[in-house]
Structure formats: C-alpha cells, structure tokens
C-alpha cells in the first residue's frame, strides 16, 4: 500500500532536483520548467501557504499531488 506514495515522493524529489539544477528532462519540460508549472496542485499550495511555499520540499508536493489524485478518484 505504501509503494505508490513513496514513488510519488521520490519522483517529486527527483523533479525538484532537476528544476534546481536547470536540467529538466524533455518529457517533463513540456509541462514547464518550474515547480509551479510542473505540479498541478502548486497553485493551491501556494495560496494556502503563501511565502512559506518555497520551503516545501518538492517530494512533499509530489506526494500531496498524488494523494489529491487518489482522493478525486475515490469521489467519483
């Protein structure tokens, strides 16, 4: 049961590291080159946390995005 959330956190961390080093892979860069562009829930998190958004690790954003997707699937 933990494999999905752990994978989401690891991929989020990997994407965050790629964004920081400005070496975003082609298959991700089509969505954008910043954390705000790549993760769909970043707008919601930025609104909720304001200036503290920049201190949220990319792995946590990836995990939150995954959990939001699971929650949406359970609602339908």
Overall description:
There is one protein chain. This protein has helices spanning 3-20, 26-29, 35-38, 42-49, 58-75. It has one domain (3-75). Helix 1 (3-20) crosses helix 5 (58-75). The protein has 76 residues and is mainly α. It contains five helices and no strands.
Q: Helices and strands, in N-to-C order?
A: HHHHH
Strand count, sense and closure of the main sheet? none
Output the structural class. mainly alpha
> Count the strands?
0
- How far do the termini sit from each other? 21 Å
Mean pLDDT: 95
Report the radius of gyration as a whole number of Å: 12 Å
Overall geometry comes to globular
Question: How much strand?
Answer: under 5%
Number of self-contained structural domains: 1
Helix content: 55-70%
Q: Segments where pLDDT lies below 50 for 5+ residues?
A: none
- Determine the number of helices (DSSP H or I, runs of at least 4 residues): 5
Question: Strands, helices and their partners?
Answer:
Blueprint: H1 3-20, H2 26-29, H3 35-38, H4 42-49, H5 58-75
Helix pairs in contact: 1-5
Which structural traits does this protein have?
mainly alpha; globular; 76 residues; 5 helices
Give a concise summary:
This protein has 76 residues and is an all-alpha fold. It has one domain (3-75). Helix content is 68%, strand content 0%.
């Amino acid at each position: 049961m933990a494999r999905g959330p752990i994978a989401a956190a690891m991929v989020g961390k990997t994407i965050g590291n790629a964004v920081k080093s400005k070496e975003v892979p082609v298959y991700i860069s089509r969505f954008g080159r910043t954390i705000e562009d790549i993760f769909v829930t970043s707008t919601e998190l930025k609104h909720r946390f304001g200036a503290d958004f920049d201190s949220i690790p990319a792995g946590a954003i990836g995990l939150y995005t995954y959990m939001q997707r699971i929650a949406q699937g359970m609602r339908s």
